[in-house]
């Protein structure tokens, strides 16, 4: 039996694959509070992906950070009612300046 060794960086990058609707989106990698995130923007849609593991008690703060990243990275306002997802990945619609 042959065991293949896959580098950890390759595994983590696979976790940051965008949803199909975000193929071709503008990708921004951000570090906040010791965590890595990927923000993808395509037109007036946004996806935020957290990289790495999070322990049970961290999810609420991570989700808040992900929401804060949206206007900071995109320059647009999140349409709150459109936000879906959790502390691993979330998507929503934006209101962007003309």
Give structural notes.
- There is one protein chain.
- The chain is of the alpha+beta class and 98 residues long.
- It has one domain.
- It has 2 helices and 6 strands, in the order αβββαβββ.
- Strands 1, 2, 3, 4, 5 and 6 form a 6-stranded antiparallel sheet that branches.
State the low-pLDDT regions, or none: 4-14
- Tally of domains: 1
Tally of strands: 6
How would you characterize the largest beta sheet?
Answer: 6 strands, antiparallel
Distance between the termini: 59 Å
| Overall pLDDT metric | 87
Structural shape: globular
Number of helices: 2
Following the backbone from N to C, one meets helices and strands in this order, namely HEEEHEEE
* Structural class category: alpha+beta
What is this structure's SSE topology?
Blueprint: H1 8-15, E1 26-32, E2 35-42, E3 45-51, H2 59-74, E4 77-78, E5 84-85, E6 89-95
Antiparallel strand pairs: 1-2, 2-3, 3-6, 4-6, 5-6
């Amino acid at each position: 039996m042959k065991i293949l060794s896959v580098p950890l960086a390759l595994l983590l990058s696979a976790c940051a694959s965008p949803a199909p609707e975000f193929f071709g989106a503008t990708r921004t990698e951000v570090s906040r509070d010791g965590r890595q995130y990927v923000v993808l923007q395509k037109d007036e849609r946004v996806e935020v992906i957290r990289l790495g593991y999070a322990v049970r008690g961290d999810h609420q703060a991570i989700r808040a950070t992900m929401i804060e990243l949206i206007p900071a990275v995109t320059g647009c306002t999140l349409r709150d009612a459109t936000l879906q997802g959790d502390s691993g990945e979330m998507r929503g619609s934006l209101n962007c300046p003309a």
